[in-house]
Design brief:
Elements lengths: L9 E9 L9 H11 L6 E5 L3 E3 L9 E10 L3 H14 L14 E7 L4 E3 L3 E3 L8 H10 L12 H9 L12
Antiparallel strand pairs: 1-4, 1-5, 2-4, 3-4, 6-7
Helix pairs in contact: 3-4
Length: 176
């Protein structure tokens, strides 16, 4: 895990996703690049950025996603960080309609340097599903492979290996 440059700050692993353009000339990949620019402004300090990848959607959405991950330093505690990230989402036209639906921008706190945090169902850190989602794990492994999940105890790199290793195939004996 990366250490904060200021001892009063925290490091957050943020997953970014977009699959709904804002305009004809502002597709999901451009939205992520613009959002990363916003994560350079106070109260954020962008520490590391993963490559942007294209992934298939989960749920009812039919549009592919642009996904990436970032490490962000901030003095904000977790719930205030969530509110600040939701403000960034709103500035990109995010509307919370249906679960797993199309969205212009989704910013999720995956891990933070403080370990675990929970505030009801509103915010849980580590994110309860991050380790099952290759579109989160792969970019995060690019920038924070040694960061350990405070709940699972596994590093991001170990989780990537678990998700990408070949699975055994059931062999059905041939009929005699």
């Amino acid at each position: 895990m990366t250490k904060a440059s200021d001892p009063g700050n925290h490091i957050y692993a943020i997953a970014l996703g977009s699959n709904r353009p804002l305009a004809r000339h502002f597709p999901p990949r451009a939205i992520l690049k613009a959002a990363l620019g916003r994560l350079k402004e106070p109260p954020f300090k962008l520490v590391a950025i993963a490559s942007i990848i294209e992934t298939r959607p989960i749920g009812p959405s039919r549009r592919s996603y642009a996904n990436c991950a970032a490490l962000v330093e901030s003095p904000l505690p977790p719930f205030a960080m969530l509110q600040a990230l939701q403000g960034v989402e709103l500035s990109f036209g995010r509307r919370r309609a249906r679960r797993w639906g199309e969205r212009t921008l989704d910013l999720d706190i995956i891990l933070w340097s403080g370990g675990r945090f929970a505030r009801g169902r509103t915010l849980q850190i580590p994110h309860p599903q991050w380790h099952r989602r290759l579109f989160v794990v792969r970019p995060l492994a690019e920038i924070a492979p040694h960061w350990r999940d405070a709940t699972l105890g596994r590093s991001v790199a170990a989780q990537l290996a678990r998700l990408t290793r070949a699975k055994p195939v059931d062999h059905i004996p041939a009929p005699l």
